[in-house]
Specification:
There is one protein chain. By secondary structure, the protein is α/β, with parallel strands linked by helices. It has two domains: 218 residues, YjeF N-terminal domain (Rossmann fold, 3-Layer(aba) Sandwich), CATH 3.40.50.10260; 271 residues, Ribokinase (UDP-N-acetylmuramoyl-L-alanine:D-glutamate ligase). The chain is 40% helix and 16% strand. The strands form three sheets. The chain has a ten-stranded mixed sheet with strand order 8-19-18-17-16-15-14-9-10-11, sandwiched between helices. A seven-stranded parallel sheet has the order 3-2-1-4-5-6-7, sandwiched between helices. The longest helix is centred in the last third of the chain and has 23 residues.
C-alpha cells in the first residue's frame, strides 16, 4: 500500500474528481468507513457515549458523516463544534435532523459543558484538522485539547480516536503541535501518510488502520514509498514445492561470532534456518566451533584460523573467498568484533579482493562499522548489497548524527541507498527499507520488545535466508523485516514487551509464515 505525502494526496483527490469521485462522495465514504472502524474498536456501540470534536474543514465534515452513522447504529453521539461550519453544510444539516446534540465551543463558558461530556464519554473522536494543519494551535482550540488530555489522564478508559491523523501532527514530517492528542487509534483515510511513522508524531498515533474510502489504487501508482502489508508479504514468500531438496531453498554462508559475541553467530544462523533456507554454513573462529556445535546442530561448519582464541585471523579471508561459488548469499559481520585482525579480515573480503564476483551480500554490525571507518567505501564495494544498520551505525556510515538520521529516517535511507547503490534496512520503530532505485517500504511495527541484544542478528539471518531462496535483495529485506516484526508481535502478545529476548523470535518465524500462507 502506497504512502502519500500531502501533495501526493491532494493530486489523488484531484484525479478522483476527474473520474467522477467528488469531494462529497469521498467524504461520505470516509465518514462511513470511520464509523465502521470505530464500531470495530469499541465493540458493541449501542448506548456508548461518543463525543466528536468537529473542525471547520473537510476533516470535520468526515467526522459529521461518522457521527450520523454512529447515531443510526445506536451510539449516544454528541458533537462539539470548534470553528464555524458553512451555513449550507449538508452533513451538519443531516446531524441536526437527527436531533444529535451539538455544542459550540465558542458558546461554552469556561468549557464547562465539555468537561461534563468528557466525564461520561466512552470515546472521543478527534475530527478537528487533517493534513492541512499549518499554524500552531492557540486560544480556544489549545484549551479544548488540553482539557481532553487532562480527562484522558484521569480516566484511562476514555478512548481517543483520531480521524485521518491526530490534529496537530504534520502529515509529512511527524512534527507535532504541543496540543496534539495522544490517540489510542488513528483511522487514516485512503492511504497512510509519512508523518504517521516519524517520531515524535508516531508516538501519538496509537494503533493505525487504513480506511478504504474508494480511491482507486492506480491513482497512486507513481508514489515510491509503501507500507508493508500482509497481502504483499504473502505474494513474495518463496514457494515450497513438494519435490524440493535442501538445494532448492538456497545456501547461506554466515561469517559471524567472536569470543565476546558467541551468541550472534547462533542467532544469525538460526534466523536463516527458521525462514526456510536449505543449508546454512557457519564460518567462525576455530575455538568457537565446539561451543556453538553443542547448540547449533543443524548447520555445517567452516572453522577459521585465529589471531588469538575466539578472534578470526586476517588470513581467513582467503578461505572465505574460496567458498563463494558454493553459496547463494554471504552474511557478514554479526558479532565479529572490532579488533584489528577482524577489521582486516572484513576489509580483505569486501574491499581488498580481486575481480572475483561476490555472492549476494547481507552486511550487519561489524561489517558496517568497518565500512564506516573506510573513506568513500562505496567506491570500492560497487555491487549492490543489503546493509542493516541501526540508527547509530547509519549515522556513522553517512557521516551525520543520530538525531539527523532519526529526524528523517525514510528520506535519509532513500538518499543513502541511491548514493551508495545499496539496499538499506534502517532498523528501529517502523523500520525503513530503501532500494538504490528509489523505492522505500516501511514496516507497520514499532515494538519496544525488539530493542534488545541479538534481535538484529536474527533479522540479518532471516533476510539472508530469503535472499538464498531467490528473492530480490529489496524484497528479501522487506519480507525479512515484516516476518521479524510479526514474530515480535506474537511474542509481545504472549509475554509483553519487557523481557522479550532474541531467541523468543526464532520459533515464531515459521509460525508467521504459516499464518500468511
Amino acid at each position: 500500500m502506497k504512502i502519500l505525502t500531502t501533495t501526493q494526496m491532494r493530486k489523488v483527490e484531484e484525479s478522483c474528481a476527474e473520474i467522477g469521485l467528488s469531494t462529497d462522495m469521498l467524504m461520505e465514504n470516509a465518514g462511513k468507513a470511520v464509523a465502521e472502524e470505530v464500531r470495530q474498536i469499541l465493540g458493541n456501540i449501542d448506548q456508548q457515549q461518543v463525543l466528536l470534536l468537529i473542525g471547520p474543514g473537510n476533516n470535520g465534515g468526515d467526522g459529521l458523516v461518522a457521527a450520523r452513522h454512529l447515531h443510526d447504529w445506536g451510539a449516544r453521539v454528541t458533537i462539539y463544534l470548534l470553528g464555524q461550519r458553512p451555513a449550507d453544510d449538508p452533513n451538519l444539516k443531516l446531524v441536526q435532523e437527527r436531533d444529535i446534540i451539538c455544542v459550540e465551543a465558542a458558546q461554552d463558558e469556561e468549557l464547562g459543558r465539555l468537561g461534563e461530556l468528557l466525564v461520561s464519554a466512552d470515546a472521543v473522536i478527534d475530527a478537528l484538522f487533517g493534513t492541512g494543519t499549518a499554524r500552531p494551535f492557540g486560544g480556544l482550540l489549545l484549551m479544548v485539547l488540553g482539557k481532553v488530555n487532562k480527562a484522558r489522564k484521569k480516566r484511562l478508559g476514555l478512548h481517543i480516536i483520531a480521524l485521518d491523523l491526530p490534529s496537530g501532527l504534520n502529515a509529512d514530517t511527524g512534527a507535532v503541535d504541543p496540543g496534539c492528542l495522544y490517540a489510542d487509534n488513528t483511522i487514516t483515510l485512503g492511504f497512510p501518510k509519512p508523518g504517521l511513522f516519524n517520531f515524535p508524531g508516531a508516538e501519538r498515533v496509537g494503533k493505525m488502520t487504513v480506511a478504504d474510502i474508494g480511491m482507486p489504487a492506480h491513482l497512486a501508482e507513481k508514489a515510491t514509498s509503501e507500507y508493508i502489508t500482509n497481502e504483499w508479504n504473502k505474494s513474495v514468500l518463496p514457494e515450497r514445492p513438494p519435490q524440493a531438496n535442501k538445494g532448492s531453498f538456497g545456501r547461506v554462508l554466515v561469517v559471524a561470532g567472536s569470543i565476546n559475541y558467541i551468541g550472534a553467530a547462533y542467532l544469525a544462523c538460526s534466523g536463516a534456518l527458521r525462514v526456510g533456507a536449505g543449508l546454512v554454513t557457519l564460518a567462525t573462529a576455530t575455538s568457537l566451533q565446539s561451543i556453538l556445535a553443542s547448540k547449533l546442530t543443524e548447520v555445517t561448519y567452516l572453522p577459521l584460523p585465529e589471531s588469538r582464541p575466539g578472534i578470526v585471523s586476517p588470513e581467513a579471508a582467503r578461505l572465505i573467498l574460496q567458498q563463494f561459488d558454493l553459496y547463494d548469499v554471504l552474511l557478514l559481520g554479526c558479532g565479529l568484533g572490532q579488533r584489528e585482525s577482524a577489521i582486516k579480515f572484513i576489509r580483505s573480503i569486501l574491499l581488498g579482493r580481486s575481480k572475483q564476483a561476490l555472492p549476494s551480500l547481507v552486511l550487519d554490525a561489524d561489517a558496517l562499522n568497518t565500512l564506516a571507518n573506510t573513506p568513500k567505501w562505496w567506491n570500492q564495494l560497487t555491487t549492490d548489497a543489503i546493509l542493516t544498520p541501526h540508527p547509530g551505525e547509519m549515522a556513522r556510515l553517512a557521516g551525520m548524527t543520530v538525531e539527523q538520521v532519526q529526524l528523517d529516517r525514510a528520506g535519509i535511507a532513500k538518499k543513502m541507498a541511491a548514493e551508495w547503490h545499496k539496499t538499506i534496512v534502517l532498523k528501529g520503530a517502523y523500520t525503513v527499507i530503501a532500494s538504490p532505485e528509489g523505492q522505500t517500504k516501511i514496516s507497520p511495527i514499532a515494538n519496544p520488545g525488539l530493542a534488545s541484544a541479538g534481535t538484529g542478528d536474527v533479522l540479518a539471518g532471516a533476510i539472508a535466508g530469503l535472499v538464498a531462496q531467490g528473492l530480490s535483495l529489496f524484497d528479501a529485506a522487506a519480507c525479512g523485516v515484516y516476518l521479524h516484526g510479526e514474530a515480535g508481535e506474537m511474542v509481545r502478545a504472549r509475554l509483553g514487551d519487557a523481557g522479550m529476548i532474541a531467541t523468543d523470535l526464532l520459533p515464531e518465524l515459521p509460525q508467521v509464515i504459516k499464518q500468511l500462507k
